[in-house]
Design brief:
heterodimer; A: mainly alpha; B: mainly alpha; two-stranded antiparallel sheet
């Protein structure tokens, strides 16, 4: 900063309010929701508050789209608080940030719809619950658009703290409390690790700004200077660990299945999609911009971590009986897939990661909506065995679940296939073929648990409601379920119609908002699997926002 | 590296491959572009399939059938629009491609969801969608009481979609997709009555032989891609003369492998044995897939890739000889078969032999013209046969049919029209089209003249076997069923039986339904058959030597680059050929008359005199036995060997068992590490963190 200018008169920071509008909407929405939640009538709290929350997300979404389209030509993006030139602003609303913000808003809407009439907001207060959700999305937006170590850390804390509370929001259920506490402890360790790493990097490069750090690292690489210092390395290592916590990357993933299983399902869905996207965005921002000069040093390590993640996530998901736990492990594996795009460090890689984030959102939210719907009706709604006969019982839930599973497995015709294809393509062209092979092997293993869900839905006769097979604790799931499946061969489409139970037809409309979420995201999974072009456009715009890539 | 930003979805407009648009000689109604219409042609049947499949349990009554018919009818309408739109372009600009989506993200494969709309593809979609509409209409009644009604129409629409995709594909990849899809649809429909063992076995046989063809097609595509670097039709065809030396090994190999695909799909010797067995499917399926459309895909393939065959004359000659061989073999077998549908099936093989021979020697418009007329009269013959089978309560044996002329007058007229067209009697359509091919062969002379003469011999046999059916089924003493029907009662079998084996069946799902339908009484069947009868009668008049040449002129732009494009048989020799063909047909028919009407019992005497030949023919030249001995048994034997030696110990034990064991152990390990206690998590975290730090320390020092 110019010292002379500062001594003459104090110049306030220039804030680009237009670009800031989505963030303002989120915060303002959060405050309004919090206040409205104080009103006495139950109807207002239970109906108006979620409606206002959805409205806030929609307005934020609209603002994001508006900013997206009024993008200054030829520039990477708006700088919210401009310093001299966009490169040193603490926050940038570039297209990568905006697209991720849209993703967060969509996940927020889905989570709000899933929470409607759920236990968690009732127990912890509707206003507070929804406001925390909005604040968390605000934190994610800050995180995803940060250009500076300080805003990066602010972002991660802003997004995490509401989530700690939200995880524990079913205050009368032990599992939820346990989940919140675990997340708090582990998350704090992660944050501490991260901030330590950030501090070391600042110490070594003398700047908190990503671009300046990037320059310092690149130049020192030529001069043989600070890049070789253990300080930078230790810093980078700690940052990797910190991010890995948030993105639930193995071997820092262990909180994930426990927290996912214990947290209220809408919050699990939200964490699985939005938080993961935010963490991956941080990876992209930091490693593919600030630390790109040191790619040779961190990329092999991250590649190893990604490979471990893929294997551990997929292998761990096998034989889980709780669907949320299974999706937790599956999320670990998927984080590993997405991390590979970061590692390549090319435009193609960034593009593939962003594309996969969008795909992952759609493919994951549909199954979660189905689980929420099942949990409303059955004590074993979260258990694989509870899905038996869902195809006959509730086709409107069975199909989204099936499509979601096929998408996550990467079956052609779904966006999951396109996403994986892009990642593999980026890996191969970036000389990481071995990692691509690991990814493919991981996908092969993943069929073992995704298809089990599909088989249970369609090929097992419905079972009567029973008590849950295991208490919703964090203990290890027992034994891989290797029960025999009904034979497929010789099945007759006309002869095998299961008798539909009484009221089965009407049951499909019991929770229209859940069905809507499930069907909408399943439809998106299929639609973009066949016509992925719009997502390609978005992803390539996002990749172009990161300058300095190959 | 591909820049993915360049991936785009172009609008559904035509991109002209040769030059920008220019108003054609006469303006077509500008409803939509030809390519848009072609995309809609594809869309209708697939939407139909999905709608029927999704609601299969809920469609009331016959709704699924009408929906399917409507879908294909719309497809036909859009085909006509595509034709009109294409005619609006000048002949030089009638090759349009349209790409809906570009899949080329890797390895330089220009994989596109792309169609090619040119006269050839439009000609084919018109034939396919037109005939399919009529057969759908016929099926609505024919399958009326079958428990699998909705499933049937879902499959049938899927078949039409696959066939149209095969035709409209703009590159080899999409062609392979369509090619495999029709194989799958054929399998599904042959085995439609899946509780009949004969039907399921026939389905498997057809599928396996078709896959042999698929493999040939795929390898041929690979060879072409390897040398030309593209899979687009137009790109490959453009590159072939520059890339390959004339008649060099790779291009001949590609041509031969394409022929493997074509022969398997079109049931040509020696890959023909599946087609007679495919008659296990419902009769409308035989009419649509195994007579009018799918089996002609090989003809289409050769015509589409004619550039390759003209650059590899050896392969083309092999194709011509194969077609010629098939037409004789099939015609001889048709004379001794007693199952009415199998006779017509062999006749189909024989007629496709003509077409394959035609397009292999360069008689493209003649071959495709015969494809069209054959689609009309062969579908008609199958439908009429279906009508008789309905009257016979499912029995298909010619031995038991007789004297249906008075009982089934409408069917009789239709069968007669179809039979006359098939035999090639003036002025029926088959006469003009078949002799068009032979005239071209004679015109090329030399070795082709021999093929032409064999073609005439086949025509003689055609007349005999066609009228064998007519004389046996419609003339003579009425059979009990025919007599019943004359009194107004439709015969019903006491116990439904498999017509091949005589096994008892029920009429539940997986077997034919309880109803039997005859064309005389059901208006949808009458309409379908009547329309085809008219087409079989006059459909040939679009191309009469010396008078008009509509098919040839229309197809000309597709074959403009062919060296045979301007080979024209003069009207004089062409008419001479037609007269010879007509005379041969008359001879054949009169021979049949002598054998089965004038002197009944001749056939028995002939059979006794030439016992060895009869046995040889009734065993269908022992092709099944030969394939069984030469391929199936060795394959089975080696399969058992490998299963016993390799599979059990090595693959199952070590590879699969080892892998799944490792995965299982890993799964258990991960779950064991997941204790639920934070202190263990912290411990692991510290270990991992140390690992990260250690890595950096090691790499920095």
């Amino acid at each position: 900063m110019n010292v002379l200018a500062a001594t003459h008169h104090i110049v306030g920071p220039y804030i680009e309010w237009r670009a800031f509008s989505p963030l303002i909407v989120l915060v303002a929405g959060g405050l309004i929701v919090l206040l409205v939640g104080l009103l006495r009538p139950a109807a207002i709290r239970e109906q108006i508050v979620p409606a206002l929350t959805v409205l806030a997300f929609l307005v934020a979404l609209a603002a994001e789209i508006w900013v997206y389209h009024h993008h200054p030509r030829g520039k990477a993006g708006f700088c919210l608080i401009a310093g001299p030139g966009c490169s040193s602003a603490p926050l940038a609303m570039d297209r990568l940030a905006l697209e991720l913000d849209m993703l967060f808003a969509v996940a927020g809407i889905a989570a709000t719809l899933m929470s409607w009439r759920a236990v968690a907001p009732r127990e912890s207060g509707h206003g507070e619950y929804s406001a925390l959700l909005l604040f968390s999305v605000f934190g994610m937006s800050v995180f995803a658009s940060s250009q500076n170590l300080i805003t990066l850390f602010l972002g991660i804390e802003l997004l995490s703290i509401p989530l700690y509370i939200l995880c524990a929001s079913e205050t009368r259920r032990e599992g939820s409390l346990e989940s919140g506490l675990k997340y708090l402890v582990v998350g704090s360790v992660g944050s501490a690790t991260l901030v330590y790493g950030l501090g070391l990097v600042y110490g070594a490069t003398g700047s908190t700004d990503f671009a300046t750090i990037g320059n310092a690292l690149s130049q020192s690489k030529l001069a043989g200077g600070s890049l070789g210092s253990p300080m930078v390395f230790t810093g980078l290592g700690l940052i990797i660990v910190g991010f890995a916590f948030k993105a639930s990357v193995a071997p820092f993933h262990q909180w994930t299945p426990d927290v996912y299983e214990g947290a209220p399902t809408p919050i699990t869905a939200f964490m699985a999609t939005a938080t993961k996207a935010a963490a991956l965005a941080a990876f992209l921002r930091f490693f593919d911009v600030a630390a790109i000069g040191a790619q040779n040093t961190w990329a092999p390590l991250l590649a190893t971590i990604a490979a471990i993640t893929i294997v551990v996530g997929n292998v761990g998901a096998l034989g889980q009986s709780s669907l949320k736990r299974m999706l937790g492990y599956s999320g670990v594996a998927q984080a590993g897939y997405m991390l590979t795009g970061v590692i390549v460090g090319t435009r193609l890689g960034v593009q593939a990661t962003v594309l996969y984030l969008m795909a992952y959102l759609a493919m994951n939210l549909a199954p979660f909506a189905v689980i929420v719907a099942e949990e409303h009706e059955r004590p074993d709604g979260d258990y694989l065995s509870g899905l038996a006969g869902l195809g006959a019982r509730r086709p409107w839930l069975a199909w989204p679940m099936t499509i979601g599973m096929l998408g996550l497995a990467g079956i052609p015709g779904t966006i999951g296939f396109i996403g994986k294809f892009q990642l593999i393509s980026a890996l191969v062209s970036g000389d990481y073929t071995w990692l691509a092979i690991v990814l493919v092997i991981g996908s092969m293993i993943s069929l073992g648990y995704y298809l089990r869900v599909v088989a249970t839905i369609w090929m097992r006769p419905p079972v009567a409601l029973t008590a849950p097979v295991a208490s919703a604790g964090a203990g290890p799931a027992t034994g891989p379920g290797t029960g025999e499946l009904a034979p497929i061969a010789g099945a007759s489409p006309e002869a095998d119609e299961w008798e539909e139970g009484p009221g089965a037809a009407g049951a499909g409309l019991a929770h229209p908002q859940l069905i809507f979420v499930a069907v909408a995201f399943a439809a998106a999974t299929i639609f973009f699997g066949i016509f992925p072009a719009p997502l390609f456009h978005l992803a390539s715009h996002a990749a172009n926002a990161l300058t300095g890539l190959l | 590296m591909q820049n993915l930003a360049s991936l785009r979805v172009p609008a559904l407009d035509a991109s002209f491959c040769r030059s920008p648009t220019r108003p054609g000689p006469f303006k077509a109604p500008a409803l939509m572009t030809a390519t848009t219409a072609a995309w809609l042609v594809l869309l209708c049947p697939i939407v139909g399939t999905m709608l029927i499949a999704v609601g299969y349990a809920r469609w009331p009554g016959r709704a699924a059938g009408w929906l399917a018919t409507l879908a294909i009818g719309l497809s036909f309408v859009f085909s006509v629009i595509a034709l009109a739109s294409l005619l609006g372009h000048s002949p030089d600009h009638r090759q349009l491609t349209s790409t809906l989506w570009n899949y080329d993200f890797s390895a330089g494969v220009d994989a596109k969801l792309q169609i090619l709309v040119d006269p050839l593809s439009v000609f084919m979609i018109l034939v396919v969608s037109g005939v399919s509409t009529l057969i759908h209409l016929y099926s609505v009644t024919y399958m009326n009481q079958d428990r699998g009604f909705s499933r049937y129409f879902s499959y049938l629409n899927y078949f039409v979609f696959s066939m149209l995709l095969l035709i409209l594909a703009g590159n080899f990849l999409l062609l392979i997709v369509g090619w495999a899809f029709v194989g799958a649809a054929s399998y599904l429909l042959i085995s439609f009555w899946y509780r009949r063992t004969t039907a399921t076995r026939a389905g498997i046989k057809a599928f396996v032989i078709n896959v042999v063809g698929d493999v040939g097609l795929v390898i041929a595509t690979f060879i072409l891609f390897k040398h030309t670097g593209t899979v687009q039709f137009l790109g490959v065809f453009h590159a072939v003369p520059h890339t390959f030396a004339h008649n060099s090994t790779p291009i001949v190999l590609a041509g031969l492998l394409l022929l493997v695909g074509a022969f398997a799909k079109s049931a040509q010797v020696p890959l023909h044995t599946w087609l007679p067995d495919a008659m296990e499917g419902p009769t409308p399926v035989s009419a649509l897939i195994h007579a009018a459309t799918m089996v002609t895909a090989g003809v289409y393939l050769i015509a589409r890739t004619h550039v390759i065959f003209e650059w590899a004359p050896t392969a083309a000659d092999v194709g011509a000889i194969g077609g010629c061989l098939t037409l004789v073999v099939a015609a001889t077998v048709a004379i001794v078969m007693t199952d009415i549908k199998r006779v017509i099936a062999y006749s189909t093989m024989s007629q496709i032999g003509y077409m394959i021979m035609g397009v292999s020697v360069g008689a493209y418009s003649a071959g495709l013209f015969h494809l069209m007329t054959h689609a009309f009269f062969k579908a008609l013959l199958f439908m009429a046969a279906g009508s008789i089978i309905g009257a016979m309560a499912g029995d298909q044996s010619l031995d038991r049919m007789s004297g249906f002329r008075r009982a089934l007058p409408f069917t009789f007229v239709c069968f007669l029209v179809g039979g006359l067209a098939l035999s090639g009697l003036p002025p029926f359509s088959g006469w003009l089209s078949k002799d068009d091919i032979i005239a071209f062969l004679d015109h090329r002379g030399g070795f082709f003249l021999v093929l032409g003469i064999i073609g005439y011999a086949g025509a003689l046999l055609t007349g005999i076997y066609t009228f064998r059916i007519i004389f046996r089924a419609f003339f003579g003493e009425p059979s009990p069923e025919a007599r019943e029907l004359e009194h107004g009662h439709l015969a019903h079998a006491e116990v439904p039986r498999n017509p091949m084996t005589g096994e008892e069946e029920d009429t539940d799902v997986g077997f034919p339904g309880p109803g039997h339908f005859i064309a005389e009484r059901e208006w949808p069947m009458r309409i379908a058959m009547g329309a085809l009868a008219v087409l079989a009668l006059i459909g040939g008049l679009v191309q009469v030597p010396g008078i008009d040449d509509a098919v040839g002129k229309f197809l000309d732009p597709t074959f403009a680059d062919s060296k045979f494009a301007h080979v024209q048989v003069k009207a004089g020799p062409a008419w001479l050929g037609l007269v010879v063909g007509a005379v041969i047909a008359v001879i054949g028919i009169s021979l049949a008359y002598r054998i089965w009407i004038a002197q009944p019992g001749t056939s028995v005497r002939v059979r006794e005199r030439f016992g060895a030949a009869y046995v040889f023919l009734s065993h269908k030249w022992y092709f099944d036995e030969l394939i069984d001995f030469a391929i199936v048994r060795p394959a089975l034997w080696s399969g058992r060997m490998v299963e016993a030696v390799l599979e059990r110990s090595l693959i199952s034990g070590l590879v699969t068992g080892g892998t799944s064991g490792a995965v299982r152990a890993g799964s258990a390990a991960v779950r064991r590490a997941q204790t639920g206690f934070l202190r263990y998590y912290a411990a692991l975290m510290i270990v991992a963190l140390s690992g990260v730090a250690l890595y950096f320390l090691l790499s920095s020092s």
